[in-house]
Structures are given as structure tokens and as C-alpha cells.
Amino acid sequence: MNPCRSLLTFVATLSTLLLLACQDDTGQGKASPVTNTSVTAAAKASPKPSIALVMKTLTNPYYIQMEQGARRAAKEYGVELLVKTGAQETSIEQQIQIVDELIQNKVAAIVIAPGDSKRLVPILKKAQDQGIVIIDVDNRLDAPTMQSQGMKDIPFVGVDNEKASFESVKYVVDQIRKQTAVAILEGIRSTENSRLRVQGAEQAFASNKFIKLVAKESASWKIDEGRDVSKRLLTEHPEIRLLYCANDMMALGAIKFLQDSGKTDVAVIGYDALEEAVIAIRQGRLLATVDQSAAEQGYVGIMLAFRRLQGEQVPPATIIKTRLVTADSLK
Question: How far is residue 209's CA from residue 21's CA, in Å, rounded to a whole number?
């Protein structure tokens, strides 16, 4: 028996609700930036500007999708794209070093998915002081830290993490009618996107009187840590029946532990809509995940960097729409 079916044993009307609760995608989907034909023409008439895309890692397929979107924009706008990443999502010092090297190499712009919302600010302030255009994607830099460093506001491209997390968790907990213990696997705690996703999940859990949040621990966005933390939490709290994971890598790690241990009475929610996560939903091993259009974030980040280099004004924030992915939405 898989975890989702086991969950049905204490969710009185889950089967009926799942059939009726198909996600309404009205108003949801990917952002569709309008191509500025005059800007594209200007790109062809001038030397290629160098724009660096700095991501956390390529060990997470999410960032591979982001790179694909960035390369599409680089081709369309005629820019030289440099892609740089750390070894893993916790390689903050390496990401800082990458930005420092880009400053020395005098790139025109840096589009960055910061691994830490605070620790990247000083080096990005240094880049900004050198006249390098900065675009923040995926994870917001910490506004108070930017202010304390005297850093000017920079455009942000990303999603409403709190809202998307709330909607995905509420989709599940609204169907629970029996006392249920739950736990949260956080990302890196110093990242704004992890904080917002956890906050959204907590709000959704709090909306149901039958839900009790018994544990919350960081698994650093990683699949191996997701497995190990899930093992520890379920050893300490064997009553847990639902795990919310702030990204799919941690969710896949949790699923791996559940499979290896033979536990069939714990369900999992993820975030990112990775291909493996979508497969897990089809197999009944994952209840829900969130598609936050990583490729579109990469595309828009490069596009905005190019437009800033052309002297154009760009929005202070571009929010990409998300999509809830469930077994119903995949039918």
C-alpha cells in the first residue's frame, strides 16, 4: 500500500474530495514577457554584453531548467552568457568567490539566485559599486541587510513562495478530519524562499483544528539530508503522518526513506515540480508539488538585465505565477 492510500484510512472523505478538488488554473501559469523588438534590434547592432547567471548548483534539476531559460533569452537578445554555480546549495562561500571573480572580469551584469539572503549582500554591493547591473532571481536578498550595506534596490524575479506553499498544503489539509501529526522539512534557514514556504505551510496547517505540527527541521534543500532528517523525525515522532518539504529534493529524500523502511502510513508534499516529483505523484508517493517555472525565471532575469544595460527602466519585482500539481491536475 502506498503512503497516500494509507493516509486515506484516517481522512474520512479524501477520495471524494480528491475527485472534486481539481485545481482551477484560471489566472495561473507562466509569465509571458513581451519581446521588445527595438531592444532585440539594438542587440544585433552592438557588441554582445556579457551577462553572468550565478546559481546555487546544478545538482538540483530545478537550476538546470533555469539555465535553459536563461540560454533561450541570451540567444534571443544577443548576449554573451556565462553560467556559474557552486558545488552544492550550501556552497555560499564559493558563490561569493564566483561573484568576486566576475567583478574582476568586469562583466556587464550578474543575474543571481543567491544561496543566502544575507551573506551575498556585501559582495553584490561591491559589484553594484563597480557599475555592474544586478538582477536577483528565485530567492530574495534580505532588504534590511541591503539597506545596512548601503546597497541600492535591485529588480527581483521570482514567485510568491508563501502563497504557493499555503495553497499546496491547504489542498491536502482541508481534506483531513482526524487528529494528524505533521512535520516540516525546511531549506537553508537563512534563505528568504525557505522562510516564506515554511510560513505558508504553517498557516495552512493552522487552518485545520485536526492538525498538530510536532517538528520542524532543516534538510538544507538536499535529497540525502531529506532522507536522514525524515528518518530522525519519524524515529522521534512516530505519530507523524504527513511531511511538508520545502523543495522536491528533500521530498524525494523523504520518499526514499519511507520506501526503504517500509512505512506506508506517511504522506509527503513537495515544491518545485521536478520531473521525478511528478512521477512520484503519478505513482501515488507524493500528494502535491508546486511548479514555479524555473526556466521562465531564468529567461526573465536575463531579459531584464539586458534591458537595464540598454538604459531601460524595469519593474522592481516580476512575480511569476505558480501552478499546483496534483494527481488530479495531471489527469
Answer: 20
